[in-house]
Amino acid sequence: MYTEEHFLAETLAPMRVSYVNDFYAKAERLMRYTAFPQEAFTHICSAVHDYAKKQNLTIQILHHPLDDSVCGWVLPDVQSGAVRTSLFDSDARNYFSASDFADMRDMENALLSAQQIFSQAHAVHDKQEEIYISRMDFELANILSDALLNRLLPPATDSKNTSKGKQFNRFFGAPTVHGNVCYIPNLTENISKRYFIKGRAGTGKSTFLKRIASAVAERGYDVYVYHCSFDPKSLDMITVPQLDFCIFDSTAPHEYFPIRPNDEILDLYRECVVPGTDEKFRNVLDKLETEYKAKLADGSAYLKKAKVKMDAIEAHIPNLNREALENETSYALKVMFNL
């Protein structure tokens, strides 16, 4: 059945973390485009997307963490995919990085500055977490996660899975030059049961998700784990297609509310935090939130500088003429669909 999923496999802030290998784990045939014109790559991707739709196949589309542009795809039904390597990917050397290109240095410096400022923002976020951690009943949160697992998992005696499930790591969004990007609506569109976790920084949302993901995998089900792009050690969402459910952190900057009959809210702040915590620490929390947003804005400014330099570099990459583009598109279709 035709479906399309959009997500990211890398984050840039506050450090570069990549799960690209997880993204292409199911692609036996993989095309790699290095220092390839973006316009031509987008054209080829559109042709592959259209053909997959006509053939009623699933396509997973990978987005760039800097500007949200398309930088790859996977067709899991036919086990093929493609990736356009980032110009700032230090593992893939090209003409610009090898020739000490000035714009390349400027782009890397802008990214480094953005990461340093985002690290400072993360430190502010940690101070917010400390307030709620000191007022949080984590034992009760564990009881709630166990109760949810009893609802989600079939009895162990009914399970047909004998081996441990696999974990696939991803990001559902990131802070980009266009603002915060989030693909939760797309990724949960075809999932019947959605759980929206509400809470505050430090109220155990990520720990809750980790406990669920671990238990589900131990029972033999594959789990798609979506990490926080701002703190990849933390989780923001898990999806389990075999059991048709997902659970995600539904707080800013990716806050959503139930719109379907089967949607359900799990409020860890209400259930597990000492009542009145928001009110008691309002002044301190407001000050930290103001500082946090200011740091995010400063970091985003450097992302935009990096984007300007990346565009300047890509302007030096010659585009394909019509004949070359059509030949490359035909070749990609043959490889992707084994024609």
Q: Short description, anyone?
A:
With 339 residues, this protein is α/β, with parallel strands linked by helices. 44% of the residues lie in helices and 22% in strands. A 6-stranded mixed beta sheet has the order 8-12-13-14-11-15. A 5-stranded mixed beta sheet has the order 1-5-6-7-4, with helices on one face. A two-stranded antiparallel sheet has the order 2-3.
**Helical region count?**
11
Strand content: 15-25%
The H-and-E topology, N to C, reads as EEEHEHEEEHHHEEEHEHEEEEHHHH
Tally of strands: 15
Mean pLDDT: 93
Helix content: 40-55%
How many strands, which pairing sense, and closed or not: the largest β-sheet?
A: 6 strands, mixed
Number of domains: 2
> Which structural class best describes the helix and strand composition?
alpha/beta
Q: Tell me the Rg in angstroms.
A: 22 Å
Keywords for this entry:
five-stranded mixed β-sheet; six-stranded mixed β-sheet; alpha/beta; 2 domains; 15 strands; 11 helices; flat; 339 residues
Element layout with pairings:
Layout: E1 4-8, E2 10-11, E3 17-18, H1 20-23, E4 29-34, H2 38-54, E5 59-63, E6 70-75, E7 80-85, H3 95-98, H4 102-133, H5 138-152, E8 167-170, E9 173-176, E10 179-182, H6 184-187, E11 193-198, H7 205-218, E12 223-228, E13 231-240, E14 245-249, E15 264-267, H8 268-272, H9 277-280, H10 282-314, H11 322-337
Parallel strand pairs: 1-5, 4-7, 8-12, 11-14, 11-15
Antiparallel strand pairs: 2-3, 5-6, 6-7, 9-10, 12-13, 13-14
